[in-house]
C-alpha cells in the first residue's frame, strides 16, 4: 500500500507570522475601540447607572463603537491564536466571519443603489429621531453638531425640523434661550448674535447636503470601499492558505 506524501511537511512560517501580524492590528484596534467606548460611557455616568442606556431617545454612538470594537477584538483574537497555535477551527471562524461581513457590505451597497428612495427615507427618519434626542446624549449631540458644521446644513430637510426637539420647539411653555431656535452648529455667523434669523443659519437640510456631497466624492467612497475589501480579501487568503498548509502537515503524518 502506498501513501502520498507532500513535499513540504511544515507550515509556512511566512504565512503564519503574516497572519499573526495582520490580526494583531485587528486585536489592538478592537481593544482601542472598546476602551474608548467604555471611557465615553464612564464620562456620561452610564457605568454607574446602566439603566441610562434604556432611557436614551436617540442613537447613542457609543453602541456603534462598542459593537465594532467587540467584533474586531474577537476576530483579531481568533486570527492571532489560530495562527500561532495552528488551530484550523479558529482560522475557519476568522475567514468565515470576514467573508460574511464582506457579503453583507456588498449586499448593503447594492441595496442602497437599488432602493435609493427607501434608504433616503430611512436616513431621514433616523436623523429626525436623533434630533429629538439631541440633548439627551452628549455623544449624539457632538455627532450631529459635527455633521451640520462640516456639511453646512441644519436639520434633516430644513431648520424647522428642530421644532421636534422639546428644547428648541416653539410650542413649549419653557423660556429657554433655545426656544424657536436651532443648535449653534447651524449658525453661519457668531451664535452670540442670533440663532433665530434665517440670515444667520444654514437653510439646507443635511439629507440634501449629503446628496450633493456624494456625487462629487464618489471616487473617494469607491476607493475606501475597495481598500477595505482588499484588506478583507487578504485576511481570507492568509487564513485559507494557512489552513491548507496545516491540513497538508496533518495528512502527511
TrEMBL record:
<dbReference type="InterPro" id="IPR018503">
    <property type="entry name" value="Tetraspanin_CS"/>
</dbReference>
<comment type="similarity">
    <text>Belongs to the tetraspanin (TM4SF) family.</text>
</comment>
<feature type="transmembrane region" description="Helical">
    <location>
        <begin position="61"/>
        <end position="81"/>
    </location>
</feature>
<keyword id="KW-0812">Transmembrane</keyword>
<keyword id="KW-1133">Transmembrane helix</keyword>
<dbReference type="InterPro" id="IPR008952">
    <property type="entry name" value="Tetraspanin_EC2_sf"/>
</dbReference>
<feature type="transmembrane region" description="Helical">
    <location>
        <begin position="93"/>
        <end position="115"/>
    </location>
</feature>
<feature type="disulfide bond">
    <location>
        <begin position="154"/>
        <end position="170"/>
    </location>
</feature>
<keyword id="KW-1015">Disulfide bond</keyword>
<dbReference type="Pfam" id="PF00335">
    <property type="entry name" value="Tetraspanin"/>
</dbReference>
<protein>
    <recommendedName>
        <fullName>Tetraspanin</fullName>
    </recommendedName>
</protein>
<feature type="transmembrane region" description="Helical">
    <location>
        <begin position="20"/>
        <end position="41"/>
    </location>
</feature>
<dbReference type="GO" id="GO:0005886">
    <property type="term" value="C:plasma membrane"/>
</dbReference>
<feature type="disulfide bond">
    <location>
        <begin position="153"/>
        <end position="186"/>
    </location>
</feature>
<feature type="transmembrane region" description="Helical">
    <location>
        <begin position="218"/>
        <end position="239"/>
    </location>
</feature>
<dbReference type="InterPro" id="IPR000301">
    <property type="entry name" value="Tetraspanin_animals"/>
</dbReference>
<keyword id="KW-0472">Membrane</keyword>
<dbReference type="InterPro" id="IPR018499">
    <property type="entry name" value="Tetraspanin/Peripherin"/>
</dbReference>
Amino acid at each position: 500500500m502506498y501513501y502520498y506524501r507532500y513535499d513540504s511537511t511544515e507550515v509556512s512560517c511566512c504565512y503564519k507570522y503574516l497572519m499573526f501580524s495582520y490580526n494583531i492590528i485587528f486585536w489592538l484596534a478592537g481593544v482601542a475601540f472598546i476602551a474608548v467606548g467604555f471611557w465615553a460611557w464612564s464620562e456620561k455616568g452610564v457605568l454607574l447607572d446602566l439603566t441610562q442606556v434604556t432611557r436614551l431617545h436617540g442613537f447613542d454612538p457609543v453602541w456603534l463603537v462598542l459593537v465594532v470594537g467587540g467584533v474586531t477584538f474577537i476576530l483579531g483574537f481568533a486570527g492571532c491564536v489560530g495562527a500561532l497555535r495552528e488551530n484550523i477551527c479558529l482560522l475557519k471562524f476568522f475567514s468565515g466571519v470576514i467573508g460574511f461581513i464582506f457579503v453583507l457590505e456588498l449586499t448593503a451597497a447594492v441595496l442602497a443603489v437599488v432602493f435609493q428612495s427607501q434608504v433616503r427615507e430611512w436616513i431621514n427618519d433616523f436623523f429626525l429621531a436623533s434630533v429629538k434626542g439631541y440633548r439627551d446624549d452628549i455623544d449624539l449631540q457632538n455627532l450631529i453638531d459635527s455633521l451640520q458644521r462640516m456639511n453646512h446644513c441644519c436639520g434633516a430637510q430644513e431648520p424647522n425640523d428642530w421644532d421636534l426637539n422639546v428644547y428648541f420647539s416653539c410650542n413649549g411653555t419653557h423660556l429657554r434661550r433655545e426656544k424657536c431656535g436651532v443648535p449653534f452648529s447651524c449658525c453661519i455667523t457668531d451664535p452670540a448674535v442670533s440663532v433665530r434669523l434665517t440670515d444667520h443659519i444654514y437653510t439646507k437640510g443635511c439629507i440634501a447636503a449629503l446628496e450633493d456631497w456624494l456625487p462629487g466624492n464618489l471616487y473617494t467612497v469607491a476607493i475606501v470601499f475597495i481598500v477595505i475589501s482588499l484588506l478583507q480579501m487578504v485576511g481570507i487568503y492568509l487564513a485559507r492558505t494557512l489552513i491548507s498548509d496545516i491540513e497538508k502537515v496533518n495528512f502527511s503524518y
